[in-house]
Amino acid sequence: MPDDAPAAPPADAVLLPSTTTRLTSLLAREQVERRLPSVVAGLVRDGRLVWWGARGDAAGPGAPAAPPAPTTRYRIGSITKSLVATAVLRAHDDDLVDLEDPVGRHLPELGTAREDVGALTVGQLLGQASGLQAENDGAGPWWERTPGGDWAALAPALTADARRHRPGVRFHYSNTGYAVLGELLARLRGRPWADVLRTDVLEPLGMDRAGLRRDDDSAAGLAVHPWADVVLPEPEHDAGAMAPAGQVWATVPDLARFAALLAGTAGVEVVRPSTLALMTQPQVVDDPRTGPWAGGYGLGLQLWNAGGRRLVGHSGSMPGFVAMLQVDAATGDGVVAMTNSTTGFGDLATRLLDVLGEAEPRLPAAWAPRPVADDVLELVGPWYWGPSPLVVRAEADGLLLEGLGRPARASRFRRSPADDGTWVGLDAYYAGERLRVRRGADGAPSHLDLATFRLTRTPYDPAGDVPGGVDDGGWRA
After folding, report:
1. Domains observed in the chain
2. Tens digit of pLDDT for each residue in 449-460?
3. What is this structure's pTM?
4. Which residue from 50, 68, 135, 462 puts its CA 20 to 30 A from 11's CA?
């Protein structure tokens, strides 16, 4: 490996030879079956690149053979959007912008009237929920294949007519929206968006090889003829104002470091943990209308529901290149894959992740006793919502309320930041709702108040002050 490749994984993180054989075989078959000029991939676990593989030739026709190395750059296409979103959210953490801000507050040339593009919020643009047009059809030709103009050329085309859907109600992928966010980033920081991206995201993560244009150690972008084994070089240029939608080039180790950030194992805080959680929260779902939805969008991140497994990351494509980055939200394992073919690969990334999980599953942490606060211990055990049995369990950092032996509304709770003895719901139906502990004359918990619902220690306990009262005759046949 070259000197600037990532450090080798620690001895206890090296994959078994049988695992690497399976991964390499899968990559090799994909390169042949999909007729990819070259393909590279990597797997990330606990913040480390634990496997790296490559097949094929990254050079263009007529050039000396160049087997891909860890330092070889590929265009990552729309994974650029995730990087730009991270930079915008870092500005949010610095109190420079709010997700509810109309973008026209910062880019007044986009207007401030309700029908203007400037009325769209920053959060809607980040979450692909703005309804803004997908492409810049009013400001030039196909931006992925032709040099782009600057913001001054793009902005006049962003009139009310550029809004395709009512904002906030449906997924509508917008490259143009990320051009707007790139200009927003530049205004917020007073520097070109690419400089901000470098100082605020790429450098802190150690993404040292990432950049906006190809260099001497970059793969050649190629189109593969559909019916013959010949290739055609694809164009490469500066997309101008549209560049924030998909112009970054990067290596496998670069993207591995970003995958570690999404998994929370990067070892550096680029955005607050609470902000990172917002990025992975669905803003809209990609509703196919003909079947169950399997994907959605967070703040700058694609979300996939793969057979009940939740993946976060982003795909990317530009002429001559396809890329994929995915992180398993439950395990934190990540995968990156890139090729220099316009038609790209199929579900290679997910299959590589599957091999890692099947061949070397993560072991759960060993169970061990831990301290539980007295005011938590007195709440654990069965409770009843009317006749429905529930149970409160102590978790490492709070409470879990769930059904006991039958389905019921379940939520996790954490202590209120106000430190007033209340608990705040974190997810599902009770997210943001307050749980209050009511005590009897002896000081022991008598019942729980949760969003007007009354939970008692026995079904319809008259001592629990059940709203509407309890029939005086009690339970009877």
Report:
1. 374-464 (2.40.128.50)
2. 999 999 999 999
3. 0.90
4. 68
